[in-house]
Amino acid sequence: MNLAFHGTADDKPRLPGSLHVNRMLSQWLEFSAEGFVTARPGKVELGQGILTALSQIVAEELDVALARVRLLPATTGTSPNEAVTSGSLSVQESGMALRHASADARGIFLSVISQRSGVSPEDIRVEDGAFIGPAGPLGSYWELAGQGLLEAEASPDARPKAPGARRLAGTSQPRLDLPAKLFGQGRFIHDLRLPGMLHARMIRPPAPGATLIDLAPTDARLVRDGGFLAVLAATEAEAERAAGRLRPRWSPGTGLPENTEAWLRAAPGEDSVVEARGETAPATITREFHRPYFTHASVGLCCAVALWEGATVQVWSHTQGPYNLRADLAKALKLPPENIVVRHAEGAGCYGHNGADDVALDAALCARAVPGTPVRALWTRAEELAYGPQSPAMLVRVEATTDEAGLITHWASHVRSNGHSGRPGRGAVATLLAAPWIEGGQPMPASINPPVAGGGGAQRNAIPGYDFPNLYVGLTRITDMPIRTSALRGLGALIHVWAIESVMDELAERAGMDPVEYRLRHLSDPRARVVLEKAADMAGWPGEGMGVAVARYKNLGAWCAVVARVEAEERVRCRHLWIAADMGEVINPDGAVNQLEGGALHGVSVALHERTRHDGTRIISDSWAEYPVLRFADVPAVTTALIQRPDERPLGAGEASMAPAIAAIAGGIFSALGTRPRRLPFTPENL
Q: Which of 319, 410, 625, 666 is the most core-located residue (most Cβ within 10 A)?
């Protein structure tokens, strides 16, 4: 990740995480006379439990009770700009920023107390925010609140606690955000109600590329801007009925590829080399792997609220990047960014780029038509499944060469895919759904791939973690984008880990070796070896219907190994998952396990069920019946182990397990059926 994009010169002394480009301590922390410390992270809660982990970090470094920490939702203009909450980077970037800022703040307050009391800092301890000297209390954070002590840049000399001195970070703490959600206390954006609020229902083009030709007269309260069309009403039900009465006429769409695999082979694109070293050689085996388009399928629908007053607009959104969303709203609405305030409000959660940013523009366009009146825009299930950004279809070709002992000497792979990032705020043209439709809107730009140094997109995890002396990895980013694509949990790692591990399994069989032993023969990374051996031991490897996979997420993040046990009846079912992960320092073990298990179950759903379908004109998988996901009755048992390393830097958990779970299920299918899957999902027709 290039942290310099926030606008701060990168030539200052390096500070941890996002603190380097948001250097003022007052951006992050504030003490109150009432006995609380307020933290303002720029990362947002998406259901991953980040509020709890960040609160633990702050409470640890300041020596205050966890209950004293208040985390404010990210808001443009007041919160630090931490770009996007994605890539399993929240603890690495925001957590380490808050750790350093809190340690620095503790040192500043301790210095002031020492100067005022004449007691040496070494003789002062902090107990729940109170400074205690040999003779008794000397003051507290709360007594010094409001004196501007944090109006300073963070010092690179601040020293957070040593791992052995931590008492709160590293312990399981109950999720701070769950009680309100469990007891229906209105924590979600869907529960937000403002006085006089109207409800909007959007009317979408029936197919990609279709444009609005005309509209029959209507008594509905209509909002129209170019091809953007919506109705407003006092209630959601009234808006739904009014939208159903409209009879717009649309032009034909541009069409969708009838055969996705054939289209992937032939579509124009930009070629690049991801990694190349050593020589080439004739392949021992050549295999291809295909995955279809699929989508986020969030149970909670995308929602936003907007209020337009004068030349300014406020937007409440469950966006993953408030500042990035503000940037694209400014482009689409032709407003200065400072005239837009984006306030984060929690939604139902999503890993990757769903329609949260899109619906924010919908709400803003509708609110502009009724100044002074708040407008709530809520997507339908059909919009959620068919109009949100899709995870790209991908095609991977792998060639491998082995020596006389069956060990791999040469590896080559090539991936063809659209880009995996169409997030807002990263280019000159807005990438929000409605932006091209409004008057003066520009065509949707083709999605991009982040560079490998930042984790990559289509090329994510394409470089194997094994010790192959000769390696070539190529990429074709397809620039034709018939279906809008963007990030979904794991990005390209989902197909690459599966492809790599499948070929490893097949070559192990050819060499007459156990799949785990074969991997270990090619694996010098000690942390990868530990998680692989741990998962295998937990599962009682080998066993009938078992498959195994190991990978380091993005080749930069957490190490994770998964063993899956599957049963093949009229369709494949995953019965048990064993997960071993090394995330370095773990702030909240219970939260980490939750994330690893959630990611693996997401992998089960993608592996066995999910696929976007279209009829050549439009996406037709726009209901739960047409877009099935993993049901509760089919959730496998999950056993998880953390390899905790408190002396190592923390790494994220949210995405590390998904790709290995898919790959392990594929291996389990071969063990159960003798068939190696080459196409996702692993449904009867694809097997």
A: 319
